[in-house]
């Protein structure tokens, strides 16, 4: 089985965005991976990284131009009350609500937000295990 190890968000200000997600969810920084162009955090089964503009050259990538959502992070929580609480806290830390917490057609309870950079993310309770 393949497992997701890292998901990274490119940002012009890695310190600001790393602090936002760390303050919101209480993630622990992987200090050994810190560099002028990267911050990484443990989040459970996968890690979350923040890559600065210098990472494009390092990875042989070109920044994408133009509007549109290309990636969305989903953070699972343990119950509906946590969806509400984390959504409120996210706004207090500088996020904006795209869609208030709601029940999905597939039985999840989630909110859709934008972080301070405008990246879309969800706070999600996938329901009780079957």
From TrEMBL:
CDD domains: PsjN_like. Gene3D superfamilies: 2,3-Dihydroxybiphenyl 1,2-Dioxygenase, domain 1 (3.10.180.10). Residues 3-126 form the VOC domain. Signal peptide: none annotated. This is Glyoxalase. It comes from Sphingobium terrigena.
